[in-house]
Amino acid sequence: MKTVSVVRCEDYELENVKRAVYEALDNISSLKFNISEGSKVLVKTNLLMRKKPEDAVTTHPAVVEAIVRYLQELGCKVIIGDSPGGPFTEWNLRMVYKAAGMFEVAERTGCELNFDTSVLEVSNPDAKRLKSMQIIKIAREADFVVSAAKLKTHGMMTYTGAVKNLFGVIPGLVKADYHLRLNSIDNFADHLVDICETVRPVFSIIDGIYGMEGDGPSAGEKRHAGLILASESPYALDAAASSIIGIEPMIVPTIRAASMRNLFSGDMKDIDIKGIQLDEIKIAPFKLPKSHNANLIGGRVPKAFEKIVLNIHRPKPVFNHDICISCGDCKRSCPPGIIDMSSGKPVPDLSKCIRCFCCHELCPKNAVEIKRHWLYEKVMKK
Ligand code: SF4
Ligand code: SF4
User: Which of 179, 190, 345, 368 is 20 to 30 A distant from 265 in Cα terms?
Assistant: First the structure.
């Protein structure tokens, strides 16, 4: 049985958030015993890109502050960190921390922000795919890592939460290399579970006060859910959170991958909910991303038809040159490097596109839309 704590919190008023975060963590009785006084703890916050807290892309600073204070009261030395999209440089970190309100958290609490951009090679012989991986040094140096995630849908993985958040320990552009290795969503989910099993967060917490639906994790619509969720099991936590927003846990590739390794059964009956019971939460299902199931066709139809079906079924990134500012972030983050900017605006070679949607995820102007073939839209709208 895995414990998941669910607490209501309607807004980002610091005192309300603190009460909710403390209650959510206090509900997990074993948690305090696992964190020894004097430990160095990395709060791996979802700082995907340079976005303000009110955009609901990054973990809200009030939630981060409450986690930091909770850990400090346990006698821990706390560091906030992430490797956001784009290059893992001090300048990029500074810009992202600034936009996300992390400097203020550090100032108010006295915790540290990580500016160390060193990288370590770490091995995990028990991993299924990533037996050796590069991770940001601070994630290894810290005695414990906390996954401080955001409740969002995700173009590629359907849902993003505690497990996917840990992809941020992979340094900057190395992420693109790992994306490239994927030949299916399930394969990528295995990579994410390998990373999660290597990092082994001491607990995970999800900022579900405001989340994101539709074309998450960055270009969707902000959505109120009024919840803080926490657990020692990132898999059970993601299962509970996805279920709350109307996504059947077993269609989330990371939960499916975890259940195949017996890390969590995937069955909601195996979760002991502390706090608000799931049937008391009335939230209309979150809208799914347009790219949902984008890569699930591969291998499931006869080879001869696969290309035609894929072309109709799979969505593609469409670049809106009218709002594009030619920053080149999409080109830099495209794993197979198939975006040409020689005309000044991005033009992808879609025949080589792996549908990872990093371009969509990291575009600061939401100039990359995910669109499906007109035939698919027509049939699905009937
Ligand atoms: S599409 Fe977005 S990320 Fe790409 S160059 Fe234009 S503004 Fe930058
Ligand atoms: S064009 Fe966009 S979706 Fe296609 S491979 Fe590049 S980053 Fe991924």
Answer: 179
